[in-house]
Design a protein that fits this description.
globular, about 625 residues, Alpha-Beta Plaits, Uridine Diphospho-n-acetylenolpyruvylglucosamine Reductase, domain 3, 5-stranded antiparallel sheet, alpha+beta, Na+/solute_symporter_sf, membrane, Na+/H+ antiporter like fold, 4-stranded antiparallel sheet
């Protein structure tokens, strides 16, 4: 009577196991892992192994649930420092950028797919947001270290742009169902947008604070805390949607608030949420893959691929460039942000809404969105590392791998127990002393435990147990790290000449003749000067140009001050790989130069005619006011 249950469970569990095993292929060959999950769903579906699944309502329900888990974890893993550093550009990308992408892609879809303009806008809204799961995986797990400002911009944007895409998609679906024009509903739409976003922010902040209070005050079994957090996160998502707000935004903000406060058992929470997020991604991509019918792709394949390429090479770059104009991003940084606009499960999930609403072209929109996601993951997902290398945005590693395990202490302690494994060639193995604040308490050597005071010199293979504040972990990592693999361009990236950032800025003037602005105190340290010029926050690889000098951040301490700096002298600035994407400052300088040149030409008196030596006829003078400078000579950022 219930014999169907066991085959269903076996198939579902088997697909999940296969998805996890294929992650080895993704890590080995650099393939986008989410593309693997999606491919397994397609292979197992009706046009592959023959599994029949066409319940769009169930797919949307499971996808929404998974989205809540993914967005909460995205916020939980985003540091408030990174959020503050790039909040303005990221939020503009997540709102105005999504609207611009919708408009540009919508017009293109109107012509390429033969849709009405309103249907084209719906198609644009469906594929307007970047996928948080894909971006976080490629930037955090992909094995490359991107400059902090660019990485934070991409992570915050991808984690916060889903609410706007969801709002626009629902809005256009309702317009198509009701048959009402956009102009007639403008006021209601604006009010609805304000309510959705406002409720999302308010409930998200309140829910995040509530999670912190509940976890820190309740005495539960240790394994129940992660379950409680997950249940509350999904409740926040559902409650906000029930009240008419954006549940996606509320889930992300709740994670951001809770993740940046001290909560009990945070390390176990992080591990649990990592596993649940992976499970949510696998299940969502498998179900969306099962829902699709590849046999239907042929009829829309060419226009869908054309629209995907238009999105990658035209719509996304235009939206990103316009949104980042007011900010000090270099051309290559804007180009990379434009390229890492991966589409993923959210676009396919939103493409289910036209099917649920029984729109005439719903099936075509779903298949088109699916092909766009596949194209994006194939083209952009597989080229993230080469693109970052070509644009010079990868930060060379300063330390090698570190083997350590952090164990959070019971209660609400401000310290945690860290266990380091001493590897050959690390500074401590070579005789470097541990700082006093590290509080080493135990050494395990050859299976025997002993007090640190009686262990003598630290040897390779030892396990060192110590109690430290979490913010000091990065400093200890440098002592226990294996020797770093020195990249060929390491000195070029971090500067060939090391300087002491604690020295006053006047020392650079005396040594190198650097001109100091009148409003800069000569007694200010080099570190303070660099942090101030960098907007209050310094990260490895940041650069500060001062005349013919360039100061480079090699490392930072726990307080965000520059701990180690490098210097380059009379070095020609590296030309931008991308010749377009002029930022706001470059455009202003270019416009100012053109205006001055035009003004000089207007003020210059008319040239007097000169007599021709042969005929005596007067010829106009050929004097000019000097050669004109091409746009390519605009000063680089």
């Amino acid at each position: 009577m219930v014999d169907w249950i066991f085959p269903l469970i076996l198939i579902g569990a088997g697909l999940i196991v296969i998805s996890v095993l294929t992650s080895l292929v993704a890590f080995r060959f650099g393939a986008p892992l989410l593309l693997i999950f999606l491919g397994i769903g397609l292979v197992a579906g009706s046009d592959g192994l023959g599994l029949q699944f066409d319940d769009v309502n169930t797919a949307y329900f499971v996808g929404s649930l998974a989205l809540a888990v993914i967005l909460f974890d995205s916020g939980f893993g985003t540091s408030l420092k990174a959020f503050r550093q790039t909040a303005a550009p990221s939020i503009i990308l997540a709102t105005i950028g999504v609207v611009l992408t919708t408009l540009v892609v919508g017009i293109a879809a109107h012509f390429v797919l033969g849709l009405t303009l309103l249907e084209g806008m719906l198609m644009g809204a469906i594929v307007s947001s970047t996928d948080a799961a894909a971006v976080f995986f490629l930037l955090r797990v992909g094995g490359i270290t991107i400059r902090e400002k660019v990485r934070s911009t991409l992570e915050v944007e991808s984690g916060s742009n889903d609410p706007m895409a969801i709002f626009l998609t629902v809005m256009f679906v309702e317009l198509l169902i009701s048959g009402t024009s956009l102009g007639e509903l403008t006021h209601e739409l604006l009010a609805g947008f304000a309510i959705q976003m406002g409720l999302g922010v308010v409930v998200g902040i309140g829910g995040g604070l509530l999670i912190v209070q509940v976890i820190n005050r309740l005495e539960l079994e240790g394994a129940l805390y992660p379950i409680m957090v997950l249940g509350m996160a999904i409740s926040i998502f559902a409650l906000t949607g029930l009240l008419g707000g954006s549940g996606a935004l509320a889930a992300y903000i709740a994670g951001l608030v809770a993740g940046n406060r001290r909560v009990r058992g945070k390390s176990s929470l992080v591990r649990f949420q990592d596993g649940m997020t992976w499970l949510a991604q696998i299940v969502m991509f498998l179900i969306l893959g099962l829902l699709a019918n590849p046999s239907q792709f042929a009829s829309v394949a060419l226009p869908a691929i054309a629209l995907a390429l238009f999105l990658m090479f035209v719509a996304r770059p235009i939206a990103v460039w316009l949104c980042l104009l007011p900010f000090r991003y270099q051309r290559d940084e804007i180009a990379f942000v434009s390229w890492v606009g991966l589409r993923g499960a959210v676009s396919i999930l939103l493409a289910i809404l036209p099917l649920i609403a029984f729109l005439p072209n719903g099936t075509m929109m779903f298949n088109t969105a699916f092909i766009i996601v596949l194209t994006s993951l194939l083209v952009q997902g597989w080229t993230i590392r080469p693109m970052a290398q070509w644009l010079g945005l990868i930060v060379p590693p300063r330390i090698g791998p570190v083997e350590r395990v952090g164990l959070e202490l019971p209660g609400n302690a401000h310290h945690e127990l860290i266990v380091y494994h001493v590897v050959p060639g690390s500074p401590v193995a070579e005789g470097e002393r541990l700082p006093r604040w590290a509080r080493p308490s135990l050494v395990v050597r050859d299976g025997q435990s002993m007090r640190y005071q009686y262990a003598g010199r630290i040897k390779p293979g030892d396990y060192i147990y110590m109690f430290i504040a979490p913010r000091y972990t990065r400093l200890l990592d440098r002592l226990f790290a294996s020797p770093a693999k020195v990249e060929a361009d390491d000195k070029d990236f971090f500067g060939a000449f090391p300087i002491n950032p604690e020295k006053p800025i006047s020392a650079l003037r005396e040594a190198y003749g650097m001109n100091i602005a009148p409003n800069v105190s000569a007694d200010k340290s080099i570190s303070e000067f660099m942090v101030e010029r960098l907007g209050g926050s310094a990260e490895e690889g940041d650069r500060v140009a001062v005349g013919n000098l360039e100061l480079i951040v090699r490392s930072v301490d726990v307080n965000g001050n520059v701990a180690d700096a490098g210097l380059t002298i009379d070095q020609e600035p590296q030309p931008a790989r991308v010749k377009f994407f002029l930022n706001g400052r470059e455009l202003l300088e270019l416009a100012t130069t053109r205006m001055r040149r035009l003004k000089r030409r207007r003020q210059k008196p008319f040239a007097k005619p000169v007599a021709s030596p042969a005929s005596g006829a007067e010829q106009p003078s050929t004097e000019t006011d000097g050669p004109t400078e091409p746009i390519e000579n605009a000063r680089q950022s």
